[in-house]
Fold:
Amino acid sequence: MEKTKIIVTSTEDNTFCKCQLCDKTIAEFKNDIMIPSAEECYKSGNVPVPNFGWFCSQKCALDYETKFDIKFGRTKDGKVGQTMKTSTSE
Ligand SMILES: [Zn+2]
Structure:
């Protein structure tokens, strides 16, 4: 199984992965390692959007879509983002 890579845009002093809408900190980066891991963030309800970034919740993702008039991908159950494989499913 291949791990999904999430591209996160970062500015010079930004070592935090933040919600793209409300700016809530989701995770921290140390030497390109995401803490907590993408998997942990996903499990705790944060929303990964491929080639875009993260939202802290489905609500923020939906609000962002409305605000900027765009559509993100959906998971099979109709949620924004993608279904991530977690190690427990291996
Ligand atoms: Zn948010």
The CA atoms of residues 20 and 55 lie 6 Å apart. The chain has two helices and five strands. The pocket of zinc ion is lined by residues 19, 21-22, 24, 55-57, 60 (CB under 6 Å).
